[in-house]
Amino acid sequence: MSSKDSYYVPHGTYWPIIGSIGIATMFVGMANMFHGVSWGGSVTALGLGIVLFMMFGWLGQVVNESVNGLYNSQVDRSFRWGMSWFIFSEVMFFAAFFGALFYAREFAIPWLSGEGNNQFTPDLWNGFVQTWPEIAFKTPAAELRNGTALSVPTELIDTWGLPALNTAILLLSGVTLTFAHHALRAGERNKIIGWLVATIALGVAFLGFQIAEYGHAYDIGLKLNSGIYGSTFFMLTGFHGFHVTVGALMLIVILYRVQKGHFSKENHFGFEGVAWYWHFVDVVWLGLFVFVYWI
Amino acid sequence: MATDTIAAHDDHHHGPEKGLLRWVKTTNHKDIGSLYLWFSFMMLLVGGAFAMVIRAELFMPGIQVVDPHFFNSMTTMHGLIMVFGAIMPAFVGLGNWLIPMMVGAPDMALPRMNNWSFWILPFAGAILLSTFFMEGGAPAFGWTFYAPLSTTFAPDSTDFFIFAVHLLGFSSIMGAINIIATVLNMRAPDMKLMDMPLFVWTWLITSFLLIGAMPVLAGAVTMMLTDRNFGTSFFDAAGGGDPVMFQHIFWFFGHPEVYIMILPAFGVISHIIPTFARKPLFGYSSMVYATAAIAFLSYIVWAHHMFLTGMPVAGQLYFMYATMLIAVPTGVKVFNWVATMWKGSMTFETPMLWALSFVFLFTIGGFSGLMLGIVPADIQYHDTYFVVAHFHYVLVTGALWSIIAAVFYWFPKWTGKMYNESLAKIHFWWSIISVNILFFPQHFLGLAGMPRRIPDYNLQFADFNMISSIGAFMFGASFILFTYIIIDGIRNGKPAKARPWESAKGLEWTLGSPAEYHSFDKAPSRKAIEQESQHTSVA
Question: For the CA atoms of B478, B479, B481, B487, what is the dihedral angle to 10 degrees?
Answer without folding.
Answer: 170
